[in-house]
Amino acid sequence: MSGFGEFSCSQPLSLGVELELQLVSLRDFDLTRGATDLLATLDYDESYGEIKLEITESMIEISTLPRDTVHGIASDLAGLITVLQQHCRNNNIGLVGGGTHPFHHWPERRICPGERFDGIYHRYGYLAKQFTVFGQHVHIGCASPNDAIWLTQALGVYVPLFIALSASSPFVDGVDSFFQSARLNAVSAFPLSGQCPPLGDWRDFIEHFSFLQRCGIVSSIKDLYWDVRPKPEYGTVELRVCDTPLDIAQACALTALAQSLARWLLRMRPPLSTALQAHVARYNKFQACRYGFDALISDPLAGGQKPLRQWASEVFVALAEDAVALDCAPWLAAVQKQLSQGGDAQWLRRCHAESGNLNDVVRLAAERLRSTLCIPGA
Amino acid sequence: MTDQRMQFLREFWDALLERLYFLPPFPEQMDSLALFSLLLVAGLLLGEWLHRHFNWPKMIGYVLAGILCGPSLLGWISSEALAQARPIADAALGLLMLEVGRRLDLAWLRRTPELLRSTGLDIVLSFSLIFLFAWLLAGLSPAWAAATAAVTMASAPAVVLLTIEEARGQGQVSERILLHTAIGSAASFLAFALVLGVIHAEHSDDWLNALIHPLWVALGAWLVAATGAAFALLIAARLPKRSLPQVFVLIACAMLAIGCARMLAVPVFLTLFLMGVMLAARDRQQILRYTALPEGHWLLAIVLFVIVGASLPWQEFGWLSVVQAVGLLLVRAAAKVLALQWAGGSLNRRRRLLVGLGIQPLSATAVFMVYELAALYPEVGRSALALPLFAAAIMELLGPVLCRWSLRQAGESLDEQKGSIG
């Protein structure tokens, strides 16, 4: 079929991580145009993975090689960011994490050259420039296409948890949005964003995709901006809801959580109530984006609400055995601490409260990414 | 005809004055505020018209308005009016130089050897080749040839800054054009201070002036700049960052420095450039780092370029001046392009060429330096410096076009993407 090839089965629970990073001017820490200049002059042998363009010139994407463990991912991310940071310094550009830039003016963004980006700009107009937001995507390897579809459905329930734990985009257009993750509001403007519809297996997915193709809605798998989607050419399931964290350690911790959760899900195979979950998915996602750890998550099976903190604690307890088996326990312990200490969004707000301006917030975020290249536990 | 009308008006006014004792005497000179407004409107109209119809940089329109209204053509702006407008021009140039100084990123220069190479080569090649051209081919004395080289070796900070702002230029070509311009200006100002002594030595037996004048200029500018920067940081530290009061403090301290420089007879452009550099270097707490000049500085820029256009003595330029000035500009262009190409570095050859072309402007600072030097020995200085002055006059019109073209070719101008959605 067109749109994508056969599902390339991969090592189960193998990992790959993509991070979209901000390119800022070191003069005022506003976003700047720099991606094509950086890539045009980069001398790098891809030993840690790839460095690629994203939709606008103020973004750059790094993607690791496929790895079996989170430690491998950590090593690749550290290598990629070290290479990129050195090159950025030579070009007087700063590299920053976080889901949104706190004060950039979106009309000033430049679309990267290339047929694909030009196509997106023509198709989506100003949304393409507003899509200058920064996310972390985690790929989890699956042994079969049917496993991939099942895992896509199963992970969908945990989307609010990943949103809350990764939230690092409280500021938009120079103001506090009151959201913990405002990034996903930019994503939700796209017509094919949101949840994967209830699908039973790989054949269902192919039929659904063919239907969308016949209707002229999609031409490639890249047109599906689902929160969790299968990625046939890599043989993975791609979790796409996380904000880019402010440092590598947090990116690795989220990856560890995704791997442990996937192992637990595939091992336990809990019954899925996808049709029922679909009714509350948007509400739960909003709660996580808006309130982060203070969200109230609706449970359609029990017919009530549960604080996200409590739900997260229960999940961490359930995953303990799988985390140990995957050597992910230290990472999970670090991410679990955030439930009481606060995450990246709170850190950014603290910086703002102390400095009184958003330029310094970005400066401090750039320093944080630079200073945390040595990862504990790696 | 105009004189007759003025005479009639004056007599009529005097007649009125005999009966209406509250009237002021007939105004012999235009009020400086009114003059400011007229220059602003004239520059604005022509700049906008040329920009809209031919997509030319607005600055060209401002300069053309000055040339048109100035003593050389229509004579609407007299030489006296020009002298009266000098404080406004000083303020405008001062603020722009302050901004260029603030953007001189020494840390970037220190950690990037290729930039040290390219800026160093640009300075050495530009000064040397222009000096040799002015001395050996244009027939100037070594002192005036050195003065010509000092004045024309650097790119025009005001033109480059405003062109990049107008085009919303972002990227390596824009950043390097700005860095080359700032470093080149610093070198040019240093050469300018040294040349002051050389000119005194050539034209006078009084060695005291030859020694003290360069020191007076350099140390005076340094002292005023350091005091202004320290004062600005001291006050601004008590105000919220990026706040409007901080903008006022920045402008007020800049105006104070401009006033002090004028009182001490040290060049305003040098003083304010140094003040900008010190503000950037000493601001370790990022007190004023994010505080930008308001958009209003464009108003002053318009007046600056109108005045510069009006002050160019077109009637003094002959055919020989044209040939010599074109020769000087070609030599200068070659020096800058060659410097960028020889220095190598991570940018590809095409982009290095675009940086080389982007740093071609020559404008207000050069014109002001010429007048400072010519004022030392007016009887010889005026004719000796006709060459750099005419070169600057040509580049007033050509420089912004080249700089803008470079940004566009590099794909760094924002209007590249305007309207590209069908």
Describe the overall structure.
The complex is a heterodimer of chains A (378) and B (422). Chain A is of the alpha+beta class and 378 residues long. Chain A has a single domain (15-371), classed as Creatine Kinase, Chain A, domain 2 (2-Layer Sandwich), CATH 3.30.590.20. Chain A has 14 helices and 13 strands. In chain A, a hairpin with a 4-residue loop joins strand 10 (228-231) and strand 11 (236-243). Chain A starts with 14 loop residues before the first strand and ends in a 7-residue tail after the last helix. Chain B has a single domain (29-411), classed as Na+/H+ antiporter like fold. The relative contact order of chain B is 0.15. Chain B has 422 residues and is mainly alpha-helical. Chain B is globular and about 75 Å long. Classes of the chains: A alpha+beta (378), B mainly alpha (422). At the A-B interface, helix 1 and helix 14 of A face loops of B.
Please give the alpha-carbon distance between the first and last residues of chain A.
42 Å
The structural domain count of chain B equals 1
- Based on the coordinates given, report the CATH architecture of chain B: Up-down Bundle
What is the gyration radius of chain B calculated from CA atoms?
22 Å
C-alpha Rg of chain A, in Å?
19 Å
Residue share in helix of chain A: 40-55%
The CATH C-level class name of chain A: Alpha Beta
Structural classification of chain A = alpha+beta
**Largest protein interface, residues of each chain:** A-B, 30 and 29 residues
pLDDT averaged residue by residue of chain B: 88
Summarize the structure.
With 378 residues, chain A is of the alpha+beta class.
Quickly list its features.
heterodimer; A: 7-stranded antiparallel β-sheet; two-stranded antiparallel sheet; 13 strands; globular; B: 422 residues; mainly alpha; Na+/H+ antiporter like fold; 18 helices
